[in-house]
């Protein structure tokens, strides 16, 4: 049947509308942080967009608490955050799934004391000002360190500051120490010394990790996008793990990580070396009992510290390996 001009125009507009909504359905907002990790190269190169065939709106956040708020509101569908804010979010009923362990944190987070602050040993922290983003992995690690050293947290002035504010406060001399990650960590290390790292705390029984999470409703509607997102990340980790020295010897890799993390190029090799980036085969194991136990243990600690009201009987419903392919 031949359509007259108005009908042809209507049909064209209908097709255009259908195409628009199909494209809009593939739009996704992803929250990332200024962490140093190999997948920053894939992010800089647009590999995620190519693999998922989605329009990705990358939004930079300074801490996990803000990411959880954005995910809870529906503004963000996929996000990168630490195990402490993740545990708090799951405990409070935010509908998310952990679909990838992004990194097992080592030397990339640390407690650093300012030179000249009078802090020469852990006990010297008493009466000092220590800045940390609250409900972050740094906050969890700081409290775990104080507990290990038998220091009452109430005897330390713990300030809730986001990383950019920590940098400013450190440069002004307003704080004596900080537990944080890059780029603030690098700034602190320039005129301070590390008392303990998250890697060392992990060996003492308080491990922390970063994770990629997704809203459950988004994952149910777009499983292929989540699966491809995970694959791109794991491919980047595999490329790095294959030969870390060769990877960091490539100026292009370091420049891209530097641009998206804010860390100094000279510090990037050491920061990468300080963490563990699990590949696909390891993820299949991690995204089960190990992560569920870590979340449960973290929740128990947060409850002890008064940061959450209760510990869930089971964190397994918020951890899944279904999006990891080998």
From TrEMBL:
Keywords: Signal. Coiled coil: none annotated. Residues 27-251 form the Solute-binding protein family 3/N-terminal domain. Gene3D superfamilies: Periplasmic binding protein-like II. InterPro entries: Peri-bd_TauA, Solute-binding_3/MltF_N, SsuA/THI5. It comes from the Bacteria. CDD domains: PBP2_taurine. It is found in: Periplasm. One of its GO terms (biological process) is alkanesulfonate transmembrane transport. Residues 1-24 form the signal peptide. PANTHER family: ALIPHATIC SULFONATES-BINDING PROTEIN-RELATED, TAURINE-BINDING PERIPLASMIC PROTEIN. This is Taurine ABC transporter substrate-binding protein. It comes from Pseudomonas helleri. The lineage of its organism: Bacteria, Pseudomonadati, Pseudomonadota, Gammaproteobacteria, Pseudomonadales.
């Amino acid at each position: 049947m031949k359509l007259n001009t108005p009908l042809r125009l209507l049909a064209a507009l209908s097709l255009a509308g259908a195409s628009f909504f199909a494209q809009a359905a593939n739009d996704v907002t992803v929250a990332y942080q200024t962490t140093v990790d190999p997948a920053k190269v894939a992010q800089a190169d647009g590999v995620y967009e190519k693999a998922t065939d989605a329009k990705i709106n990358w939004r930079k956040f300074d801490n996990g608490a803000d990411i959880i708020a954005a995910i809870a509101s529906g503004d963000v569908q996929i996000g990168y955050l630490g195990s402490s804010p993740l545990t708090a979010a799951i405990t409070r009923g935010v509908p998310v799934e952990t679909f990838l362990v992004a990194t097992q944190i080592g030397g990339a987070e640390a407690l650093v004391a300012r030179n000249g602050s009078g802090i020469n040993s852990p006990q010297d922290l008493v009466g000092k000002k220590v800045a940390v983003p609250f409900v972050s992995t740094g906050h969890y690690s700081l409290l775990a360190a104080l507990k290990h050293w038998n220091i009452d947290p109430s005897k330390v002035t713990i300030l809730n500051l986001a990383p950019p504010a920590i940098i400013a406060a450190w440069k002004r001399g307003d704080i004596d120490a900080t537990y944080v990650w890059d780029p603030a960590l690098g700034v602190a290390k320039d005129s301070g010394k590390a008392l303990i790292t998250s890697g060392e705390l992990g060996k003492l029984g308080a491990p922390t990790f970063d994770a990629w999470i997704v809203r459950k409703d988004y994952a149910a509607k777009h499983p292929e996008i989540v699966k491809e997102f995970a694959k791109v990340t794991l491919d980047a980790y595999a490329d790095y793990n294959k030969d870390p020295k060769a990877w960091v010897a490539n100026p292009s890799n370091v420049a891209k990580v530097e641009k998206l993390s804010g860390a100094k190029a000279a510090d990037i090799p050491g920061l990468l070396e300080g963490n563990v980036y699990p590949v696909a085969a390891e993820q299949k194991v991690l995204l089960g009992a190990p992560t569920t136990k870590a979340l449960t243990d973290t929740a128990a600690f947060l409850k002890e510290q008064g940061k959450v009201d209760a510990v869930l009987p089971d964190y397994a419903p918020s951890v899944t390996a279904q999006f990891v392919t080998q």
